[in-house]
Design brief:
By secondary structure, the chain is mainly alpha-helical. It has 21 helices and four strands. The protein has two domains: about 130 residues; about 350 residues, Catalytic domain of cyclic nucleotide phosphodiesterase 4b2b, CATH 1.10.1300.10. The N and C termini lie far apart (about 50 Å). It comes from Diceros bicornis minor (South-central black rhinoceros).
C-alpha cells in the first residue's frame, strides 16, 4: 500500500476513489515512456475531485535511493529525473486515460537528495552545450542511464517550441520516443540508439546554421529531428547486400515493391533501399501506434509521413552521387530558393546525410571511438559470412581490412566531397570550417596508424589494404556509410 498524503484536505473517503487512483498507478507504470520509474515509487495525492482528475507528486528523494539499491547493475539516474532536470517535466502534462478521462501529472523533484542535485547540475551543464560541436554523446548517454535519445529529443522539442506549436501531448511524445529508442538494437556496436542520438545532436547543430535557420518552419525542424532520431531504427547490424544474399524477408519484401506504387521521392533503386525502407516504414508505424499526431489534420499527417520517408530514404548510400551532383549544380547556378518548400526539403535531406556520416568530423577522441564501433560491426558481419560459407563482403574481413585503411577510404570518397559542398552552402561558416578541420586532422591520424608494408610485399602490408584511397577502391569505400553498413 502506498503512503498517502494525509495532511492534505482532500482525504480519500471512498473505495471508488481509491480504485480510480490505483487504476492511474497501473497506467502510469505500464506506460513505456517512463522506464526509470520503479513500481514501488510512492505517489502522494495532492488534490482530487470526483470527476477523475488528480494531481500527484513523485517523491524522487525516496525513489532515487531505492532505484540504486535495486538496480545495482545499472548506473546513472532514472529517465524521469533526467527529464525533470531539462525543464520539460516541471509543467502540467495531460496523460491519456481510459474511459476518455484525463489525469494531470505534475512531476516534482524539488526534494531530491544531494547526489541527485549534483547530477542535475552536471546534466543541466551538458544540456547547455547541446548545440556545440564538441558535445560528448557518450557521456550524455551515461548521465541519462542509457536514455540519451529520449532525453535529447524531449529537450530539443521543448527548446524549439515544437511541443507548444503542435500542441503535442507530452506523455504521448515520451511514449513514442521510448518506442523509437527501444527499437534500436543495443547489442549493435554502432547502429544503436546512441548513434541515433549523435545524429540528432548533429542535426540540431545544422538546423542552427544561419544560412538555413532563418528559412525553417516549425514543421521543418520537427521533421529534421524526427528523421535523425529514427533514420536507422531496428537496424539489424548487417548491411543490405548481406540481407539480399541470405534471402532475408526484408530484402524479398522491398525487392518486390512495384515501382508504380512508389510514391516517396521516386528513384530507380537497384535493390529498393532495403534498410532505409524498413527504417522509415517502422517509424511511420510507431507514429501511428502512438497517435502522437492524431490530433492534427489528416492532410498534414500524410504530408509529415511522406516527408519523413523521403528524408530517411535520402540516407541510402546508393544515392550519394545523385544528391552530391544535385547540390553542386544548385550551388554553381546559385538557384537555391529556401523560401520554396521543395528546396528546403532538399537541404534537410543534405543536412541529414551530413549528420549521418559526421563521425569523421568530430573531435579525434569521439571520432576514433565511432570508427572502432562501426568496424566492429563490419567484422561481425564478416564472421557471420565466413560461418555460413558466404563470400566475405568488402571491408568486413578483419584479417585483411584494417580500421585505418577503412576510415581513410571512407573519408576520401564519401565524407570529404559532401562536407566540402556543405561548407560552400553555409558560406564556410564557423561550424563548417571546424568540421573540415577535424576531418583533416583525423585523416592524418589514421594515416599515421596505417599498417606498415612488409619489404618485398609490393605494399601489401600485414594489415591488408593499406592504401584504400588508391586505385579501384571507391566502390568499396561506398559501402562504408551509416545508412548501408553492418
Amino acid at each position: 500500500m502506498w503512503p498517502w498524503n494525509t495532511t492534505h484536505s482532500g482525504e480519500i473517503g471512498t473505495k471508488k476513489k481509491v480504485k480510480r487512483l490505483l487504476s492511474f498507478q497501473r497506467y502510469f507504470h505500464a506506460s513505456r515512456l517512463l522506464r526509470g520509474i520503479i513500481p514501488q515509487a510512492p505517489l502522494h495525492l495532492l488534490d482530487e475531485d470526483y470527476l477523475g482528475q488528480a494531481r500527484v507528486l513523485v517523491c524522487h528523494d525516496e525513489a532515487f535511493g531505492f532505484y540504486h539499491k535495486t538496480q545495482g547493475s545499472r548506473s546513472g539516474p532514472s529517465l524521469l529525473e533526467a527529464m525533470a532536470c531539462t525543464g520539460v517535466c516541471d509543467v502540467e502534462t495531460q496523460l491519456n486515460y481510459s474511459c476518455n478521462r484525463s489525469l494531470t501529472v505534475n512531476v516534482c523533484v524539488s526534494n531530491m537528495i544531494h547526489s541527485s542535485a549534483v547530477f542535475c547540475l552536471s546534466f543541466q551543464h551538458m544540456l547547455s552545450k547541446v548545440g556545440m560541436w564538441d558535445f560528448d554523446i557518450f557521456l550524455f548517454d551515461r548521465l541519462t542511464n542509457g536514455n540519451s535519445l529520449v532525453t535529447l529529443l524531449c529537450h530539443l522539442f521543448n527548446t524549439h517550441g515544437l511541443i507548444h506549436h503542435f500542441k503535442l501531448d507530452m506523455v504521448t511524445l515520451h511514449r513514442f520516443l521510448v518506442m523509437v529508442q527501444e527499437d534500436y538494437h543495443s547489442q549493435n556496436p554502432y547502429h544503436n540508439a546512441v548513434h541515433a542520438a549523435d545524429v540528432t545532436q548533429a542535426m540540431h547543430c545544422y538546423l542552427k546554421e544561419p544560412k538555413l535557420a532563418s528559412f525553417l518552419t516549425p514543421l521543418d525542424i520537427m521533421l529534421g529531428l524526427l528523421a535523425a532520431a529514427a533514420h536507422d531504427v531496428d537496424h539489424p547490424g548487417v548491411n543490405q547486400p548481406f540481407l539480399i544474399k541470405t534471402n532475408h524477408h526484408l530484402a524479398n519484401l522491398y525487392q518486390e515493391i512495384n515501382q508504380q506504387d512508389w510514391l516517396l521521392d521516386p528513384f530507380q533503386y537497384k535493390n529498393m533501399s532495403v534498410l532505409e525502407n524498413h527504417h522509415w516504414r517502422s517509424t511511420i508505424g510507431m507514429l501511428r501506434e502512438s497517435r502522437l499526431l492524431a490530433h492534427l489534420p489528416k492532410e498534414m499527417t500524410q504530408d509529415i509521413e511522406q516527408q519523413l520517408g523521403s528524408l530517411i530514404l535520402a540516407t541510402d548510400i546508393n544515392r550519394q552521387n545523385e544528391f552530391l551532383t544535385r547540390l553542386r549544380t544548385h550551388l554553381h547556378n546559385k538557384d537555391l530558393r529556401l523560401e520554396d518548400g521543395h528546396d528546403r526539403h532538399f537541404m534537410l535531406q543534405i543536412a541529414l546525410k551530413c549528420a549521418d556520416i559526421c563521425n569523421p568530423c568530430r573531435v579525434w577522441e569521439m571520432s576514433k571511438q565511432w570508427s572502432e564501433r562501426v568496424c566492429e560491426e563490419f567484422y561481425r558481419q564478416g564472421d557471420l559470412e565466413q560461418k555460413f560459407e558466404l563470400e566475405i563482403s568488402p571491408l568486413c574481413n578483419q584479417q585483411k581490412d584494417s580500421i585505418p585503411s577503412i576510415q581513410i577510404g571512407f573519408m576520401t570518397y564519401i565524407v570529404e566531397p559532401l562536407f566540402q559542398e556543405w561548407a560552400r552552402f553555409t558560406g564556410h561558416s564557423a561550424l563548417s570550417e571546424n568540421m573540415l578541420g577535424h576531418l583533416a586532422h583525423n585523416k592524418a591520424q589514421w594515416k599515421s596508424l596505417l599498417p606498415k608494408p612488409h619489404r618485398g610485399s609490393g605494399g601489401g602490408g600485414g594489415g591488408g589494404s593499406p592504401d584504400l584511397a588508391g586505385q579501384g577502391t571507391e566502390k568499396e569505400a561506398q559501402t562504408v556509410t551509416t545508412g548501408d553498413t553492418p
